[in-house]
User: Fold this.
Amino acid sequence: MTATSAWCTSTPNLLGFFRFSITGDSGFLAMFSTIAPDGTRDTRVGDDVSTERCIELVRTALGCAPDHPVEIENVQQWSASAVTAESLSSGRVFLAGDAAHVMPPTGGFGGNTGVADAHNLAWKLALVTKGLAGPGLLASYDEERRPAGALTVEQAYTRYVLRVDPSLPQDDLQPPLDDASIELGAVYRSGAVLGEADVATPLDDPRGHSWAPGTRVPHVPLSAGRSTLDVPATVSRS
Ligand SMILES: Cc1cc2nc3c(=O)[nH]c(=O)nc-3n(C[C@H](O)[C@H](O)[C@H](O)COP(=O)(O)OP(=O)(O)OC[C@H]3O[C@@H](n4cnc5c(N)ncnc54)[C@H](O)[C@@H]3O)c2cc1C
Assistant:
C-alpha cells in the first residue's frame, strides 16, 4: 500500500480533495461537486472532463494564479455509492474489499475496511486449509465482517450527506460515530467468539481497555518497547 497524504480543498466554488504520494511526485484531485455563485452544489462534475475544464478545476482547488502551469495526465470517473453485499461468502467464494462493500470516500474508510476483511479471512483460511480448524470457522467471516462493513458504509454515507450534499434526504441518516472506532473498534459476534461482548455501543473504542470478547486486543506496552499488538497468535494441534 502506498503511503499518501490527503488535503481537503473547500473553496466557494468547489468541494474535493487532493491526494499526494509521500514522495510528492504523484497525486490527484478528487472532485465531489462544484458550487455555483448562488450556493447550488452540482455533483455531476464528470459531465465535462475536457482538459481545459480539468485544468480550471485544479487551479481553483489550488487557489493559484489563473496562468499557473497545470498538466493533466489522466482523468478517471467514479460514482459515490453506498452498498453492502447481501452475503460475503458462497461455498468456496469469499468477497472482500470493494467487491463486498462500496462507500463514498468521505471518511477514508474504503481501503481500510477491505484490509480488515482480508485480515479477518486470512487466518481463518490458513487454519482451515491446514486442518487446524473445521470449515465452520469460515462461516464467522460473513457473521463478523458483513455487519462491520454495513456500519462503515452507513458512516461514510452520513459523512457524504453532511459534508458534500446536504440536499440528500436525512431522515434515516445514522448519527456520525468516532472515526478510530469505526476503523478499529468492530465488535464481532459470531460462532467463533466465546461469550458475549459487554459493550453497549455497536463499536468499542480501540483506545480503551475493554478486553471484551470479539473486540480488538488493546495496546498495552510490553518490555523492550513492544506492544500486546506485536505478539503473534499461535495455534497448534493438541
Ligand atoms: C477518490 C477516492 C478516494 C479514496 N480514498 C480512500 C482513503 O483515503 N482511504 C481508504 O481507506 N480508502 C479510500 N478509497 C477507497 C479505496 O480506494 C478502495 O476501497 C480500495 O482501493 C478497494 O480495494 P480493492 O482491492 O477491494 O479493490 P480495487 O482497488 O478496485 O482492486 C480491484 C482490482 O481488481 C482488478 N480486476 C477487476 N476485474 C478483474 C478481472 N476480471 N480480472 C482480473 N483483475 C480484475 C482491477 O483492475 C483492480 O486492480 C478511496 C476511493 C476513491 C474512489
Summary: Residues 83-230 form a domain with the FAD/NAD(P)-binding domain fold (CATH 3.50.50). The first strand starts at residue 4 and ends at 10. The chain has four helices and eight strands.
